[in-house]
C-alpha cells in the first residue's frame, strides 16, 4: 500500500495531523517509537482546552483513542531511515517498510544534556531526564532540578510532593508560567538557586554537584530539564532549510522540500506548547490534502 501521508511522531502535533488527515479521507499512518512523546512525562497538564487538570500521559491516551476511533493505526515502531523516492517517500522502521506520497514530520525534540563530567557515568544512577518516570523513586531525599522553564517547574512540583527537599537550579532567569511559580514559591521544601553545574560527583550513584562558582552541594538526584534539541538526524540528506536549528516551515507547515510537511517542537514554532503543536498538525494535514488534490 502507498499511503497518502506518513505521520512521523505521535505527540500532539502528529495526533492532530492524523485526526484531520482521516477527516479528509487520506490514507495515513502514525509511526512513533514512543506514542504520546514527551507529553507523557508532564506531571499535570492544566492549559489544554477541555481538561482542567490531568497527567500528560492520560491526555495523550485520550487523543490516541480519538485517532484510532477514526480508523488510523498508530505503530509504536522505531524509525530507522527515511528516503526520498521517485514517487514520494520510503520509511524504514525496525519492523517494516512503508511508502507514501508525502510525509509529516512531528518527531519533537530530545532532552538537552548538560555535558559536564559525571553526567554520562551517573545517568540512571541519580541523573534523570524524566521526572515523571523516576520521581517516585525519590522520597524524602535532596534533589536538584536543572532548568527554568515550564517542564522544570512541573518537575519541582512533583518532586516536592514526594517530600523531597528540592533545589531549582536556574542559569539566568526563571521562565516558567507565573501560575507555576506562584505554586512552588509557596512550598517550604523548595529553594531557588541561581547557578550552573560544573560537575556531578559520585561513585555508584550521585552524591553531590559542584557549581561553577566552586560551591559543592550534597544531593541524591539530578533532574535535567534544560530544554531540548530537535530530532533531525533522519533528515540529514534532505537539505531541509533550518531556522535556529529547527525545521523552517511557512504558515501552511510546508518545508522547502516538495512533499515534506512538519509540525510541533521540531519546527521553528514560536510558542512550544501542546495546543500550538496540535493546531499546526491540523494545518499540516490540510496542506497535505490540498497538495495531493492538485
Give the overall silhouette: elongated
Structural class: alpha/beta
Q: Which percent band covers the strand fraction?
A: 25-35%
Strands, total number: 19
The end-to-end span amounts to 21 Å
Largest sheet: 7 strands, mixed
Quickly count the helices. 6
Rounded mean pLDDT is 95
Can you lay out the helices and strands and say which pair or pack?
Layout: E1 2-8, H1 12-23, E2 28-31, H2 56-69, E3 73-75, E4 79-84, E5 89-93, E6 97-105, E7 109-111, E8 127-128, H3 131-134, E9 142-146, H4 150-161, E10 165-170, H5 178-185, E11 190-194, E12 197-201, E13 208-211, E14 216-218, E15 221-224, E16 228-230, E17 242-243, E18 246-247, E19 260-262, H6 274-293
Parallel strand pairs: 1-2, 1-6, 2-3, 6-19, 8-15, 9-10, 9-15, 10-11
Antiparallel strand pairs: 4-5, 5-6, 7-16, 12-13, 13-14, 17-18
Helix pairs in contact: 1-2, 1-6, 4-5
Task: Summarize, please.
24% of the residues lie in helices and 28% in strands. By secondary structure, it is of the alpha/beta class. The two termini are 21 Å apart.
Could you walk me through the main structural features you see in this protein, from its secondary elements to its overall organization?
The protein has about 290 residues and is an alpha/beta fold. It has 6 helices and 19 strands. The protein has helices spanning about 10-25, 55-70, 130-135, 150-160, 180-185, 275-294; strands at about 1-10, 30, 75, 80-85, 90-95, 95-105, 110, 125-130, 140-145, 165-170, 190-195, 195-200, 210, 215-220, 220-225, 230, 240-245, 245, 260. Strands 1, 2, 3, 4, 5, 6 and 19 form a 7-stranded mixed β-sheet that branches. Strands 8-15-9-10-11 form a 5-stranded parallel β-sheet, covered by helices on one side. Strand 12 and strand 13 form a beta hairpin. Helix 1 runs parallel beside helix 2 and helix 4 packs parallel to helix 5 (about 180-185). The longest helix has 20 residues, at about 275-294. It is elongated. It starts with a strand and ends with a helix. The mean pLDDT is about 95.
